[in-house]
Design brief:
- The protein is 48% helix and 7% strand.
- The protein has eight helices and four strands, in the order ααααααβββαβα.
- A four-stranded mixed β-sheet has the order 2-1-3-4.
- It is globular and about 50 Å long.
- 42% of the residues are buried.
């Protein structure tokens, strides 16, 4: 079992994305199935213009493309996302959740087969969108929960792989610091909780959060920017 003490920059673990997706499936899908259909029409503040239904449609579509080996240039971009959401506009909520559950269960193997690791970040993005849904519903634990330590591991690998902003992060509740970004560069410094770091790295709101950041701007941390 992954614990806070285990979180640090590591080399690629091809099983990590699947492990994160499976853990999030086990936590998220029962929550989705417990909510009335009306809740899926609520807006997602982190994704302007999207409802919860739209966010989940996007997630399921991207994972299905991985599982069925139909990944195309532009997948995950605005135009492809709009098409995927439109194709699912008439689906009942249960079918959207079914697709997401299948994708979370099966996409890990497809990601692991890509030796370059170029799809590893998809699992992190799916985990972040699960947090977006929780926040849209006013639930605690957005960008936290049992998968957080693995999500941080994956964030560390992805930011190092793509040479993104280098940060030494001292995280509340974690025994070891987390190193993000290019290991050859002098790191900036972050002190605060892990969920806020995830928000900073994904362009989510940090309103009301208390943290220290030196040597890098919030905008430079956004991996989706």
């Amino acid at each position: 079992m992954t614990t806070p003490a285990d979180v640090r920059r590591v080399d690629r673990d091809p099983e990590l994305p699947g492990r994160l997706l499976t853990a999030e499936r086990d936590a998220l899908v029962p929550l989705l199935r417990s909510r009335p259909d009306a809740d899926f029409d609520l807006p997602v503040p982190a994704c302007p213009g999207w409802s919860v239904r739209d966010a989940l449609s996007h997630c399921g579509a991207v994972l299905t493309r991985l599982v069925e080996d139909r990944w195309e240039r532009g997948t995950g971009g605005p135009e492809a996302n709009a098409r995927d959401i439109a194709e699912r506009a008439d689906w009942p909520v249960a079918r959207i959740v079914d697709e997401l559950e299948r994708g979370m269960a099966e996409a890990g193997a497809a990601i692991a087969r890509n030796e370059r690791g170029s799809r590893d970040g998809v699992a992190f993005g799916e985990w972040v969108h699960a947090g977006d849904v929780r926040e849209a519903w006013g639930l605690p634990g957005a960008y936290a929960g049992p998968g957080q330590a693995d999500a941080l591991r994956l964030l560390a690998w992805v930011t190092a792989h793509y040479g993104l902003a280098t940060v030494h992060a001292d995280l509340d509740g974690y025994d070891e610091p987390l190193r993000l970004g290019d290991p050859a560069r002098t790191p900036a410094r972050y002190i605060g909780d892990a969920a806020t770091l995830v928000r900073l790295c994904t362009g989510r709101s940090t309103a009301g959060a208390s943290y220290e950041l030196a040597g890098v701007t919030e905008a430079e941390l956004n991996i989706f920017g």
